[in-house]
Design brief:
heterodimer, A: mainly beta, six-stranded mixed beta sheet, four-stranded antiparallel beta sheet, globular, B: mainly beta, seven-stranded mixed beta sheet
Chain lengths: ~110, ~120
């Protein structure tokens, strides 16, 4: 069965600084990988996803993520953080039999300081 | 499209009462998912439907929980009787078609349930 680990519960970044959120997955085959963002009181919004091909994936709001099979990682990055990026970020993995069943990490809460 | 619609947004009830959460998926989506989010357990899949048929309910915590999808545009998640440990945010999500490899799940805004 697949699993996801997000080792950082909270991260604080200064506005304008770069950001990297870590995600490690466990799955025997090539996974489908996702990053979602959840603003307070809101549902989850998809930032980006990886199915195959180019391991560097571009998403919305200036985010990107890189799939590294050798490290079983799918870290999320943004070169310059804006105050509006403060939210909770979830990494998820789906089996390659389909993405009906997603397993989510426990999330990383991003705080942006002025 | 209005996206996935959930109601109510907030529900406060007393232990032992029946609670019904409602979801309207995005029109044309074949799959519907119910998730529960708590601080302790994170986001968990409870059940999902394909073309109104329950496919996997292995995440439903116990018999007090039941879910139905009488038609393509409506689903309910019912808890009877409710207990304080059911307090959580319940999300509904829909997905168009898994054969479309670029598709993804779209989430509703959630229902925050508090059981006193």
């Amino acid at each position: 069965a697949q699993s996801v680990t997000q080792p950082d519960i909270h991260i604080t970044v200064s506005e304008g600084a770069s950001l990297e959120l870590r995600c490690n997955y466990s799955y025997g085959a090539t996974p489908y990988l996702f990053w979602y963002v959840q603003s307070p009181g809101q549902g989850l919004q998809l930032l980006l996803k990886y199915f195959s091909g180019d391991t560097l994936v571009q998403g919305i709001k200036g985010f990107e993520a890189e799939f590294k099979r050798s490290q079983s990682s799918f870290n999320l990055r943004k070169p310059s953080v804006h105050w509006s990026d403060a939210a909770e970020y979830f990494c998820a993995v789906g089996a390659n039999t389909g993405f009906q069943k997603l397993v989510f990490g426990t999330g990383t809460r991003l705080l942006v300081s002025p | 499209d209005a996206g996935v619609i959930q109601s109510p947004r907030h529900e406060v009830t007393e232990m032992g009462q029946e609670v019904t959460l409602r979801c309207k998926p995005i029109s044309g989506h074949d799959y519907l998912f119910w998730y529960r989010q708590t601080m302790m357990r994170g986001l968990e899949l409870l059940i999902y439907f394909n073309n109104n048929v329950p496919i996997d309910d292995s995440g439903m915590p116990e018999d007090r929980f039941s879910a139905k999808m009488p038609n393509a545009s409506f689903s309910t998640l019912k808890i009877q009787p409710s207990e304080p440990r059911d307090s959580a945010v319940y999300f509904c999500a829909s997905l168009q078609d898994v054969a479309t490899l670029t598709d993804t799940q779209y989430f509703g805004p959630g229902t925050r349930l508090t059981v006193l």
